[in-house]
Design goal:
Length: 217
């Protein structure tokens, strides 16, 4: 068994920058034998464990909002070619039934989430850092659409959280790492060109793994 760690890519960006759509595009092209994708969305603590602001509203946009150690430990396991299971986080949507995600190690490991760069223990494992960016008005519109359709949040709640939690978190925990990214993709209209650059790089990386004299398992 080849014990060389998977090539690890970190993808971050503000809420509404298009990370989910970008990840779906990757999944549509690469197989699970080639790429393993882990999202920090599945590592949020329950609402009862979240910090609240001065108005008593739970704030899910703080570094401590996630099971940070669990995420890091699972990443380490995947880099050691160990399979990981994790229950899906449904964002307190009572209408959604959580699934059990099975993350199987692959030559390329992608870590996606708003704190992927902020956690130094995770950031130091990354071989490639990608930052998705979009204009403020587009991010708000996308956030409203996602939270109302997928997470069953009222509009007033979405707007409040964006102004008081999401936007300040971006300025403090996400934007400072933009200059450290290897690739910055502006997703104001589409990300096709940037995606093709990443796809080509990933294909080259996979070819190098397949050419290795020791077979992967």
């Amino acid at each position: 068994m080849n014990m060389k760690p998977p090539f690890t890519i970190g993808i971050t960006g503000a809420s509404g920058s298009g990370k989910t759509t970008f990840i779906r595009q990757i999944r549509s092209i690469f197989s699970e034998d080639e790429v393993c994708i882990v999202s920090q969305d599945d590592y949020y603590r329950p609402r009862a464990e979240q910090s609240t602001d001065e108005n008593g509203v739970s704030n899910f946009d703080l570094p401590e909002s996630l099971f940070r150690e669990d995420f890091y430990e699972d990443v380490k396991k995947l880099r050691l070619w160990q399979t990981v299971t994790r229950e899906e986080y449904t964002f307190n949507n009572e209408q959604a039934k959580p699934e059990i995600h099975v993350f199987r190690p692959a030559p390329i490991l992608i870590l996606e989430g708003i704190f992927v760069f902020h956690y130094p223990e995770v950031r130091n494992l990354l071989d490639l850092r990608l930052f998705l960016h979009a204009k403020e008005d587009l991010k708000v519109i996308r956030r409203i659409k996602r939270d109302r359709e997928e997470r069953n949040y009222p509009l007033e709640d979405v707007l409040y959280r964006y102004a008081h939690h999401v936007s300040p978190a971006f300025d403090r925990y996400i934007k400072p790492y933009q200059d450290e990214a290897d690739i910055v993709i502006n997703n104001n209209r589409r990300f096709d060109v940037g995606f093709e650059v990443l796809k080509g790089y990933m294909q080259t990386t996979l070819a190098a793994y397949k050419a290795d004299q020791t077979p992967l398992k």
